[in-house]
Amino acid sequence: MSNILVIRLKSIGDVVLTLPAVQMIRDNFPDAKITFLTSKENAGLLGGFREVNEVIAVDRAALRGGNPLRVIPEFFGLLGRLRAGKFDLAVDLHGIGETGWLARVTGAPQRWGPVQNAGRGRAYTRKIRHDSQLHAADWHLRMLEQCGLKPGTVRNEFALPEPARAAARTWFADHRLDLQKRTLYLQPLTSGAHKNWPLENYLAVARQFQSAGAQIIIGGGPADQAALGPARREGFEVTTGVSLLVTAGLMQLATLVVGGDTGALHLAVAQGKRVLMLMHDASPGSPMPFHHPEWVVAAPRPEAIGEITVDEVGTACERAMAEIEEGLMD
């Protein structure tokens, strides 16, 4: 295989969870050119995928917007890039109708993908029945193995670009934070309200650790600025103005990262950072920290994340920090 296309359009966490699969593809095809097709808003994230040689970014909003002045050039531009890639293999790690069609229009003689119903499988030359009981990253590896790739050492390694690392250090300095001090990074908001532990609980944990001498960073994206207003009003450092890669750098500099089932925490795990994920559902197949189910505080019953107590999270944070400081993280 000389040219390989990997497809995963969204979201941040799901793109991050393709890392082990991309690294398995590279191990099997060390000399291939690997291109990754993703949504425009996630394209920057691929800067940390060392195995990826090229990124194709899709403006899905333009394609779906209904304005022919945007739809037509975006559609034909994408079609042209997919055809020009002369891909030998297209690997669809998303498995929806849209991505199956994208795999098919590449013209790649080999097209692999997951299926949940027989009709969708027509897009692929090798189709594997999706197993919802497996963690997403494990499922990707299983699919590749069933398509004939050799398993090896599983890697989940996000390589933060140096400019983002430097920008994170500058952010620490600008906010008068000490790189040598205990730092607790809290990521309260997720993509769905049902996954969010109450913000006031996060703030209670922040106060507890701040009073014990720890530095506190509250993470979030630009869209979270209003929601995180209470954290800012209490004087905590809030990161809503930084890019995703700089956020990754800030998490890397922190001692411990705590939050819900969100892309930022999966990104932290892929950097080898210790996290504590608060989950509304930790049943088989749920997106727990990859290979670290012990890094979870689970709701006592499904969809009841608000019933996790502040004391429970505080105790888990102290235990995790002690393990980090004693070198016992692994």
Describe this structure in words.
It contains twelve helices and twelve strands. By secondary structure, it is an alpha/beta fold. The chain folds into two domains: 3-146, Rossmann fold, CATH 3.40.50; 162-325, 3-Layer(aba) Sandwich (Rossmann fold). It starts with a strand and ends in a 5-residue tail after the last helix. The model has no long low-confidence stretch (mean pLDDT 93).
Overall number of domains: 2
First-residue to last-residue Cα separation: 36 Å
String of helices and strands: EHHEEHHEHEEHHEHEHEHEHEEH
Largest sheet: 6 strands, parallel
Query: What fraction of residues sit in β-strands?
Result: 15-25%
For the CA atoms, what is the radius of gyration? 21 Å
Which segments are poorly predicted (pLDDT under 50) over 5 or more consecutive residues? Answer: none
Question: Which structural traits does this protein have?
Answer:
alpha/beta, single chain, 330 residues, 12 helices, 6-stranded parallel β-sheet, Rossmann fold
Question: Would you kindly provide a brief summary of this structure?
Answer:
The protein is α/β, with parallel strands linked by helices. It contains 12 helices and 12 strands.
Task: Please specify the SSE layout and strand pairing.
Layout: E1 3-7, H1 12-16, H2 19-28, E2 33-39, E3 54-58, H3 60-64, H4 68-84, E4 89-92, H5 97-105, E5 110-115, E6 126-129, H6 136-146, H7 162-174, E7 183-187, H8 199-211, E8 215-218, H9 229-233, E9 237-238, H10 244-253, E10 256-259, H11 263-270, E11 275-279, E12 296-298, H12 310-325
Parallel strand pairs: 1-2, 1-4, 2-3, 4-5, 5-6, 7-8, 7-10, 8-9, 10-11, 11-12
